[in-house]
Each structure stands twice: as C-alpha cells, then as structure tokens.
Here is the input.
Amino acid sequence: MPTLAVELNGDAVHSIRAPDRFATTGHFSIAFENLGRSTHVHLHFDDELDRVCSIAETNHFVDDESTRRVHVTAREVDEPVTGKLKIVTGYGSNTRYVEVRLDPPPDAGSDTVTIDERLTKPPERPPDLPPRQRVANAVAGLVERGGLPAAILGVLAAVAGVALAIALDSVIVSLVVGAVLTVSIAVVLLALL
Here is the structure.
C-alpha cells in the first residue's frame, strides 16, 4: 500500500516535514514518524479530495518517538483528482499542505476470457484394452516395479497351503487356507489392476 511519510518534531517542537506532492491510484496510508515528544495531529482534505478520500478520524495522537499509521480510503476514479491534504500540529501552531493526486487504476485488461472450442467437448477416451492385454500390462508393471519375486513367493505359499490342507485332511485348516487364498487373490488382483 502506498504510504505518505510525514516526520513530526524533527527540526523543532510541532514541526512537520512532508513531501510537497504525493500520488496514488487507490487506498493509501499516512505514516507519522514522531522524533520528539507526543503530539496531536489534525488532518483535513480540501473539497476536491474530500469527495474521493476519507479517514475514520481527523484528530490523531502520536506518542513520544513512535510511528502512527492512518489509513485513507480512496474511491476508484475515472479521471485524475488533485487536491490538498492539510496537516496541522500544536493545535494550529504549525500547518503543512501536501498536494495529493489520485489517479485512475491502471487498466488491468479486458474482463472477457476467450475459451477454445476444443475445451467445450469432453476429451476422447481411448477404447478399453482386451483382458489379455490388461493382464500382460499388469505383469509387465509388476516386473518393472520389482514385484515379481513377491508374486512367485505368494504362489508358492498358496500351493504349500493347499498341499498342507490336503495332507492334514482337516476342515479347520482347509477353511483357514481358503480364507488366506481368497484374501491373497484379491490383493493380487487389486495390485494388477
């Protein structure tokens, strides 16, 4: 945010040092840098600036050796507006005028957006691959990612589980092996797809 810097009590008690001119394109702040004892500052916009600029309060207290910022709200203008900002300290003992120019904001470009006609249609989806090709791609991906040894170990574990279930001829072992095989097959299928 543009800032108008004003020095207070620098040269003498209630002295005001500020630039002769200040230009902005919108809201700005006034920074009072007090180099001495605490003081009261009164702000006033002339008629031209008062139509486009406003502040919450006109009287401001600035503590000893501190900085106080005052926010100035400015309306957007179509043509430049120039006026005077009056800064008063010491209950009228010192006065300083700053010429303030409020310019229209820079042209941000047109508000229209051109849309390419190709973006209005959904993208074309390639046809689904046949199941044999999907399996081949999944196996190739498994080999590329280094999952082939794990897949071989999984198949060997499944064969060993089925052999154990047959050898023991136990219903409980068969159910456990069946559950493990079902979960294993489901995980492998999810990994392949």
